[in-house]
Amino acid sequence: MRVTIDREGGITIEDCEQVSRQLSRVFEVENIEYKRLEVGSPGVDRPLRTRRDFDRFAAQQARVEVKLREPQDNRKVFTGILRHKDSSDGAPTETFCLEFDIKKNETQTIEFAFDDIEKAKLDPVLDFKGKKR
What we know:
Function: Required for maturation of 30S ribosomal subunits.
Domain Ribosome maturation factor RimP N-terminal: 2-45
Number of helices: 2
Shape: elongated
Family: Belongs to the RimP family.
Oligomer: single chain
CATH topology of the largest domain: SH3 type barrels
Subcellular location: Cytoplasm
Number of strands: 7
Main location: cytoplasm
Structural class: alpha+beta
Mean pLDDT: 88
Radius of gyration: 19 Å
């Protein structure tokens, strides 16, 4: 059995261990049989499926990959920083912005609504090099 957990601020290994222990106890008390229990997070490249996901990661200005239903500038797939488009009074609107690099030190921004998205996922930049000494 695979269980995926999530919350604002992210998931730690300790969170997964705690949920695993709690579920194991519940399954034992309720006589629910399972061969293996796997508790995990959605991952660093998690898919974004709901409007709530987009609102959450736009507020964090996360790096995402978005595939649009209809092309903009002859492209459907864009990777960049997700934001809410601000209205004239500074409040977030229903429209999202994605800022992406087109050349070194040159960026472009596209705008789209949630309904314009075919699929999307987080696209974090991971550094596996570690600290230099």
